[in-house]
Please model this.
Amino acid sequence: MASLRMCRQLSRSLTSASASASSLFSRGRNASLSRGIGKYSTAAAVENPISPPVSVNYNQLLIDGKFVNAASERTFPTLDPRTGDAIAHVAEGDAEDINRAVAAARKAFDEGPWPKMTAYERQKILLRFADLLEKHNDELAALETWDNGKPYEQAAKIEVPMMIRLIRYYAGWADKIHGLTVPADGQYHVQTLHEPIGVVGQIIPWNFPLLMFSWKVAPALACGNTIILKTAEQTPLSAILASKLLHEAGLPPGVLNVVSGFGPTAGAALASHMDVDKLAFTGSTNTGKVVLQLAAKSNLKPVTLELGGKSPFIVCEDADIDKAVELAHFALFFNQGQCCCAGSRTFVHERVYDEFVEKAKARALKRTVGDPFKGGIEQGPQIDMEQFEKIMGYIRSGVESGATLETGGERFGNKGYYIKPTVFSNVKDDMLIAKDEIFGPVQTILKFKDLDEVIRRANASHYGLGAGVVTQDLDTANTLTRALRVGTVWINCFDVFDAAIPFGGYKMSGQGREKGIYCLSNYLQVKAVVTPLKNPAWL
Ligand code: ADP
Model:
């Protein structure tokens, strides 16, 4: 029930306030720098973008506690998705900067003080960081919206507060990490020490830059590790400000190093570095395969992966249709559809299918699209030209493969990367739009007859990240919960992301879990300590 409440709250505050695709749709580093979008004609006019209530004060790399330029002195533009214009030029780190950052993290780990500090001291710094984030809530949110395009109200009222909660959650864990006393042969005293794993490389994506920053950094720091974080090239800004605040809170130099830059250069250098003890990655399944190979070919560093998804959202025949429509809409369209766990295969029982499609279409038509800094906006622009074109390619493919385009299907306005909320009905399992991760505001609605059939079809995917189920029947909920091969099942709710709830994927959606108690094991080594007992007879 708590989950359902949170989910409703999330929906309410929002309203108020690839695997096979890569061959079909061209991708490339420079695509995001493209400005021209004339290919997609427009009917609606777009207002002049609102001037963001924030300025960019930090744009350098953060290495060993200092802001520095890239060794190459190169910079790259980070773009405003509302216009495609540059917001700022950011230092472009590459392999040499990763080497510098790893050396700083190594020194901070080997010489301390961070891993040797009392857990209580580490906890105090994390708690001070959370307080500073609270103070800078709106500034961080504005930077996030400017760089990413997500609605400001979503960033300010949901995402930054969620980030703060998560940091406090892991601050709480810092002084509760300890090993066990293990029963063994009566001649020995055996205990386990839970030690930090060492120098950690972390690579994050662009869809939730601050939340991904916190999911990675907070547990690793609570466990006493040192970090090199590579942000996504599309959204470098908010993590730099957050890291500055973390240093203000008292983080010693070299404990967290932040390198902005591109995947094949900075990211690959981090994944293949011989002196990085652990890699944590969030991004696409294709890139996940690449970093896993780089880790294996270098020093066999353990890797956790949080990858793509094509999550089923199952509307059973007993569902309250109005609630199901709203939840399915939220599950797909939240964050411009740019969620790895988006409920992107909407399976609806045949008895309620027509009513659901009609209402889903009406809801999509009502969705407010526009400048994300404007109040009441539910949907801003997609992140960049590359994603915009990829999504438009999938929409074309949906039409060509015979799905019914109920609404949307074209760009919104004449500037930036906005796409009208799009709904397809009569979608078949073998269509590309039902198989690939679109990562955009495109709902695909499929029809099913019975539970066995929908279980089989929902599981017939290489992905296994999340699933949504709408039903009032406890037996149906229990059956689906156990049958679905996914890391999270949301029953009568969706996208509930409390700090303590583990998140991660089955199958090609990832390896390992983030958040909650489960995440701690990603950042700890277990050492067994065996001591002979002088007087075993006393046992
Ligand atoms: P997307 O396709 O959504 O941009 P990616 O998986 O490519 O997702 O990107 C997620 C993160 O992985 C980003 O920080 C990106 O720079 C990084 N990345 C991309 N390619 C590589 C690579 N070859 N090695 C390491 N990191 C990479």
Observations:
- The chain has 16 helices and 22 strands.
- Residues 203-205, 230, 232-233, 262-264, 267-268, 271, 283-284, 287, 290-291 surround adenosine-5'-diphosphate (CB under 6 Å).
